[in-house]
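Reviewer 2 asked us to include a model.

Predict the structure of this chain.
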Amino acid sequence: MTDSPAETLVAVPLGDRAYDIVISRNAIDSAGDRLKTLFPGARFGIVTDENVAKAQLPRLTAALDAAGLAHTTITVPAGEASKSYACFEYVVDAILEAKLERSDIVIALGGGVIGDLAGFAASVARRGMDFVQIPTSLLAQVDSSVGGKTGINSRHGKNLVGAFHQPRLVLADLSALETLPERQFRAGYAEVAKYGLIDDAAFFFWLEDNFKEIASGGPARAEAIARSCAAKARVVVADERETGARALLNLGHTFGHALEKATGYSDRLLHGEGVAIGMVLAHRFSAKLGLCPGQDVSRVIAHLQSAGLPTTLADIPGDLPPTSRLMDMIAQDKKVSRGALTFILTRGIGQSFIERNVDPAQVSTFLEDIR
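Predicted model (structure tokens):
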């Protein structure tokens, strides 16, 4: 990780697929010159959503125009529902209709939904195009824009259709976070806390001390984002295609994805909110198995609650399906192997581990007990 007065660079050293994460307050405004240098002669297809188009697209198009770069814009509705077969088809067809060539560049301008959708479209359009991530949400800046996971949802579950396709560059603009609704920012913060809970207790304790400054946009915000990106980069480099340790990044996601599906991928439960509840459930389940101290569970709950995040099933508006149906949704998780459940469990704050062959009956009893 290198710093200058204006920006922080986090390297993702993946050989011939290596790229940088650039973190600064004007990453969008300076994108034109950077992209012109990295991709001489390329045209750009900007994939964004209706909300981000209003807030950030004018900045990006002005930067591209100033650098003399040709571009076209493909806009989809905002929200998780756009991670669908229909929107995927629309984006791919729009790339082709714009006559973007294989040597041209797809830009994902938006949050995690846009990054996943645009990255997947780029992975298959003309049998593979390069793409650039310009994440505009906290969740996307610290998690989904880094590591090359792209995809869409299926009626069977979240992110079950997709590809590993690394970006060529990530531009994380800190000023873009200032236009985020507070709920979206707090949901993204769950992914920041996750990095401490996985294997860096010192980072989690630092977050406890610095959350107010992170939330208010002080210097701690840039540091939290940079440390999160560096943490994810280390894991991705060690296990790019999630055959081993990278699965640790899914702490809270097995429960969380099931809850997202149970709420119809709607505003009832944002992804980061599902992760927050899922991380609490992972710690509570670990404690029930005798693995995790109860005081650590309480500390996790207290911090996430202080960050304005939901921590219980009761915090989700409306009714949830019966436990048997939730178990069906958990069984569709991507970490399931030959029908056996895999969970990310923990022995305490910063001590997560991969547990394979988890007994579904134990999970079902646990969920039934906490409802």
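The chain has a mean pLDDT of 95. Residues 23 and 172 are 5 Å apart (CA to CA). We have added this to the supplementary material.
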